[in-house]
Amino acid sequence: MRGQDQGPLWTESLPGPARAQEGTWQSRSEPGEDMMTSPSEQEPKGMFECQLCGLTAPYSYVGQKPPNTHTVVLLEECHVLKDPFTLDKDKFLILGSPCSLCNKLVCVGQECSLYYSKRFCLPCVHENLSAFPQEIQQEVEKRRAPSKAASKKSDSRTLL
Amino acid sequence: MSSSKRTEGKGYREPKSSRQWDWGCPETRSQLEEIFFGDQDVIRRGSEDCRKFWAFFERLQTFQRSKAGLEAKRPTEAQAPPRPRGTALADLPATYDPRYRINLALLSGKGEPVSELRGSRSQLPHDRLAEFRRAVLHYLDFGQKQAFGKLAKLQRERAALPMARYGRHLLQALQEHQVVVVAGDTGCGKSTQVPQYLLAAGFSHVACTQPRRIACISLAKRVSFESLSQYGSQVGYQIRFESTRSPATKIVFLTEGLLLRQIQREPGLPQYQVLIVDEVHERHLHSDFLLGVLRRLLPARPDLKLILMSATINISLFSSYFGHAPVVQVPGRLFPITVIYQPVPKEEAPTSKSEKLDPRPFLRVLQAIDHKYPPEERGDLLVFLSGMAEISAVLEAFQPYAAHTKRWVVLPLHSALSITDQDKVFDVAPPGVRKCILSTNIAETSVTIDGVRFVLDSGKVKEMSFDPKAKLQRLQEFWISRASAEQRKGRAGRTGPGVCYRLYAESDYDDFAPYPVPEIQRVALDALVLQMKSMGLGDPRNFPFIEPPPAASLETAIVYLRDQGALDASENLTPIGTLLSELPVDVVIGKILILGCLFDLVEPVLTMAAALSVQSPFVRSAQSNLDCGTARKPLESDHGDPFTLLNAFNAWVQVKSDRSANSRKWCRRRGLEEHRMYEIANLRRQFKGLLQDHGLLAEARPAPADSYSRQQQHRQRRELYQLKREHEESEGRKRKVLRLEALEGGSSSDEDAEASRAREGAHAVDIQVGHLAGMWALSPDGGSSSPLPSPCSLGALGRQAMPTGVPAGSPAGVHLQTLSLTDPEGVTWQPGAASLRTFPPSPFQDVKFKLRHDMGQLQAAASSAQDLSRDQLALLKLVLGRGLYPQLATPDQFNGCRKDSDQFFHTQSKQGAVLHPTSVFASNPDLLQGGQTEAREKGRDSKDGLSSRHQLLAFVSLLETNKPYLVSCVRLPALQAVLLFSRSLDTNGDCSRLVADGWLEFRLESSERATQLLSTALRLRARWEEALDRQLARQAQPRSEERAAMALKAERKVAAALGRDLLDFMRSKVSYSTHRLTALEAQNLYVGPQTVPAAPQLSAVFGETAMSPHDTKGGYAVTSFLTYNCLMSDTDLYSDCLRTFWSCPHCSLYMPFTPMERMCHENTCQAAPDQAAPGASDEEAESSRQASALQRTYHCELCQKDLLLTPTEILRHRKQHL
């Protein structure tokens, strides 16, 4: 665990005798103290950026089978990040995926895309609105109204 | 997502068939869990997630049931949409189903093999399973939406910060310049965003300093949350007791003091690419010093970037200090604030320092708010007062008003409050009621409270100032600066437009100083100078401070350090100085630690040193509580306050290790703040580590444990970690709704004058001690000073007018039970709010404590300290006394005739100091009057006050509020203490008159005893010094294990023998009187240089020391501190020439001696018996000397022995045979 080496740290690439006795001034912490991370953090692969709203976040995996999960598969090729809001290693957060029509990389936010057996960016949905079932059409219409009033995403997310 | 709230599962369309089906049936649930929530599954049985799922499931069902009703009425048309043209649209499912909206699939519980494995599946109908699977999918999808929503919200909030628009600008400036100043007011987001911009720009070794430890923690938490590595390790913090830093850490938040320590170790700071110094405008001692150090460092590290962050205060000062560094100015995010000037009318203004604050002007503002703003319009009031006495005066006046109108909840806020009480200011008032927070300047910068709409500014602040001449700290009330006034005003405009009432005229405002006085100009600089010396920064007088401290302060500090032996005559660090500079504590405390190691009193000394370095754990409000007083009694020690602290801590540890006992309750009963106990435990642990690192303390080898107990221990720790993790998962105190009722009687408004005076003083001490502790980043929360003559009439009347228990028929919401309001995730963030809250609740503290400390070890230490023998206690006192010297005070000679509360004490530079009311001696003054009482008993006419029991007080600090207070006192036998510690001892001819340090005079009854004591003291001092030198030399030498162990053992024995002899000395009974010299007496103290250079046969006195006439005092300088016969005598001028018959107790020599000759003889004569003192056999004495390099073998022909002696010892030995 990390606590074992409470040294001076992050100095590998730097010159100088950096590995000094800094430990004195740190809590001489026991191994594992102050620790909550697994040492094998998933390294970010790159930055995901939504081509519609510009939301950016690092992603650690692209595909349908997020790492560390065994019983869940994704039904589309997603950019995935380990869920940063929980300690669980196997929780992941889907950031976005390419629109199945225009292939633009879009986030899963309500203002940018929807999923109906495939990912569709909202511009494409609007363009092909009639191809979608009525439920979707109604929903999109509903969404459009407030999003025109205030371009910001609304915070109210209802259950389901 | 609304459209997905549709039909789910066919089950609900056939209500009849599912009648016997019950999702709630435990057995069914258990089966389902078995199938879906296995170890490999996303949701695991029994986990928090699992509980959440079932809650979700229930809501889902309710929802679906209601939906199902609607659905049935609506004709299911589901007409196929026109067939699409594109390929992607071609195979869209024609009939809508919410499951098509979910981009996840679940593998759990699928397929026959699994079902066989999991056996029981057959009992569950297929459609139910399918339905359940869909529910799980919905749950997972919901979780995704929630998490993504959080992420998106976070990004939006970041983008909305004023700082966001300047990120690029900053990075560009940083590319072109080595130093950039970022100026922006609270709320602009600089502290959280700048580190992240750096990270995003590819910097990976960023340090960001903060003046407060708490801010380090809360910022690290926030920044890691925002940068999505909440559970990662790229963002960390490092403070005194804790570090979350790892090799993967890219940004670390740390205190200024800590960064300085790192520079001390590695002047080039190679571990960092970018340094951010935040809150430079606060001008703390450390931050000013850090800036100076960095300015020197930058040319040597051209690749190092420095960012200064400041409020928009005096930016040009910082910019120009760093060669006109570019400034990135960021607008704050403040709403407009109306300023109303309401100067206090003359008749209500306090006329003298001692008068109590008149609350009427404050009350009028409260009424004005009630009058002008309907209660439905929310918005709280923040009142800035100078100190605690002022807070309680206003509180007293506000409470009856609040109770009467039922529109206010009044809360005090200052740093001496218990943590629970401090936390209350973040709670929410019930509807229709406003919160009124009475605060010191702690709410100006360090604590941010949301929802404040009104600010009431008294315009006053209490600040610590330092009197370099008296080495006294003074807490005084001042007008604030314009910068502070603006800062206070700004607190009203954080959440919406606000109003600021100022209790001074606009012209006053214009007269205010533009900026507050920087700390470096207000405090003692000992620690700073010591650190500068150890960093090799040269002469502190020439250091290019951003604004230099007063020259007198620097001089005082240098002289003080020289006096303490930390600097030599040419102002270079001595070995002890080097060691002291390594200890992150005040010089005095450091000395106590070192001295304690010598006598093997490490455990109690560690505790005392730690306890004296933190705020007092004794809660001030409990002072007036009788029950608390009684419960505390057994903890009190009549030796002095540090011993009381020691007892309290040890007792607490015992309670803590006793499983059945509840330490929290125990603390509350005694009016102890448990958090301080944790701090003491942490600090003493750090001290111990430091002493070990410096070889002053042998590292304890872990006792060999059998594998069983090791396992046991391991398991216990695992469990504790589990607890800790769980706590961290559910972290964050939830805001509560305040109760009107509870608050009325709750806050103490009825403390008597005595108690509140006690609190004030003690509070101020907190601050002082805070600074003492060097790296303590305590908020400069003003204390208070004005004495409270009697309970305020207004408050008292008000209370009488209101029957108790009034709020029976109070408006709606008053009786609301406390309930949780905020979302547990607490996505909205308050740096300040977080700050007070970072102290986790007690149960968790306990876990953390047990993780960090070896309970067994601590308990052993505590219990060993509990049964300290009388000898050890006495030795401990001696150690404290020597550490605290010259902070000594003598009781006024008429104290015996005074009331308990009127006891006066005098220090060398300050007359008429009083005991701090929390002191054990304040309640038991007779402990200090031993001498005087005895003298009186002996005979009324003996006005000389002869006694053998005179006491002196050694104190930790001298603090002036309305009176000068002695804080944390230990009592010591007066004469003995002075003989052992004084840097200057002057005697008359027969040594019956002694003057210590030019201010304390002692007259001894018998000159014979006097000379005897004096010569014993000289020898003891020499031995003590030698032992200390050896201890320090050991620390400096590289240790070879075996030799070190041997030397250590020998030293131990020597030290033990020394300890015994010191104790004997302390116990020696001699009758004397003591007296503080008047100014006149002090002036005509010395005979002055003598023309007669007669020093007959004096060369032999006191060992090898050659006596020479003293140039200024007259008489003869015997040692560096002792001057013989230099005192102007009022009796006989010839005493030193008079010989009287005397018989030596050692060699039975009987002949006439002058006192000087007698001393001479005694000294040589005693050398032999001394060495053969009990416990120190020849052999031991020999081994003890091995360390000395000067020794050589000497063959004495007279005693036919080979001895290992130093040259002086040889001389001494020869003398024996004369």
Keywords:
heterodimer, A: 160 residues, alpha+beta, 2 helices, 9 strands, 14% helix, disordered C terminus, B: 1218 residues, alpha/beta, Rossmann fold, 6 domains, seven-stranded parallel β-sheet, seven-stranded mixed β-sheet, 42 helices, 32 strands, disordered N terminus, CDPF1 (chain A), CDPF1_dom (chain A), Cysteine-rich DPF motif domain-containing protein 1 (chain A)
How are the SSEs placed, and which strands pair?
The complex is a heterodimer of chains A (160) and B (1218).
Chain A: E1 46-49, E2 56-59, E3 61-63, E4 72-74, E5 78-82, E6 92-98, E7 105-107, E8 113-115, E9 119-121, H1 122-127, H2 134-149
Antiparallel strand pairs in A: 1-2, 3-5, 5-6, 6-7, 8-9
Chain B: H1 26-36, H2 48-73, H3 87-90, E1 104-106, H4 112-117, H5 126-160, H6 167-176, E2 179-184, H7 190-200, E3 206-210, H8 213-226, E4 235-238, E5 251-255, H9 256-265, E6 274-277, H10 285-297, E7 305-310, H11 315-321, E8 327-330, E9 337-341, H12 360-372, E10 380-384, H13 388-405, E11 408-413, H14 419-423, E12 434-439, E13 452-457, E14 460-467, E15 472-479, H15 482-490, E16 498-502, H16 506-511, H17 526-534, H18 551-563, H19 575-582, H20 587-598, H21 602-613, H22 626-632, H23 641-657, H24 663-669, H25 674-693, H26 707-729, H27 740-746, H28 753-772, H29 793-801, H30 831-837, H31 842-852, H32 855-866, H33 870-884, E17 888-891, E18 905-907, E19 914-915, H34 920-923, H35 930-938, E20 951-960, E21 964-973, H36 974-981, E22 985-987, E23 993-996, E24 1000-1004, H37 1007-1036, H38 1041-1067, E25 1072-1076, H39 1079-1083, E26 1108-1109, E27 1116-1117, E28 1122-1124, E29 1140-1143, E30 1150-1153, H40 1155-1171, H41 1178-1185, E31 1192-1196, E32 1201-1205, H42 1207-1216
Parallel strand pairs in B: 2-7, 2-8, 3-5, 3-6, 4-5, 6-7, 9-16, 10-12, 10-13, 11-12, 13-16, 15-20, 19-21, 22-28
Antiparallel strand pairs in B: 14-15, 17-18, 17-20, 20-21, 22-23, 23-24, 24-25, 26-27, 27-28, 29-30, 31-32
Region (Disordered) (chain A): 1-41, 140-160
Protein name (chain A): Cysteine-rich DPF motif domain-containing protein 1
Domain Cysteine-rich DPF motif (chain A): 48-140
